[in-house]
Structures are given as structure tokens and as C-alpha cells.
Amino acid sequence: MSLSAVSLANGLNPNMVRKWVADADGVTAGRAVGPAVVPAPVAVGAHAQTPTASFVPVALATSEPLIVIEVQRPGTCVKVTWPAQAAAHCAAWMRELLR
What we know:
elongated
């Protein structure tokens, strides 16, 4: 799936998610940046060591693909979310709605 599809499926702005990804990768506006969190020194015996930064994988809940239909008119916005596995039912509903 594309980043935009994942963003929209979760109700997020794709540009905001792209910024989060760039920040997580250490790239902002085309220039490298340091880590967001600098590890504090940890005393071990008589020596202080600074732990190295590492990637920590996080398991995310997977969601089923969705059909998202958004209709905007002046003063009104209607957003319908439908499971993709029921696409035929969504099409039938849309046909009925648009009659």
C-alpha cells in the first residue's frame, strides 16, 4: 500500500505522515538532523557509557482494506467508510443513493 492510502485509511493527512517518516529517518527539509532523543550516560562501575541508539520494532494492528467515499458540498461533508471485502454491497448502496 502507498503511504497516502495508509494515511487516508487511518484518517490522517498524508503530508503529516510523510513528515513523521522523514523525521524518523533523520531527514527534514533535505538536511540530516540528529536523533530526537539523546541517550543519557549510564554509570557502569567506574566508567560511564552512552548507549547507542537503535531501532525498536513496534507491532501495529493490521486493519482490513477500506473503501472511503467523501462528498463535500458547501456547508456539508459526508464521509462513508465501507469494508473493501463488501465492495459489491457498497456499489449497490451507491447506485440506490444516486437514483
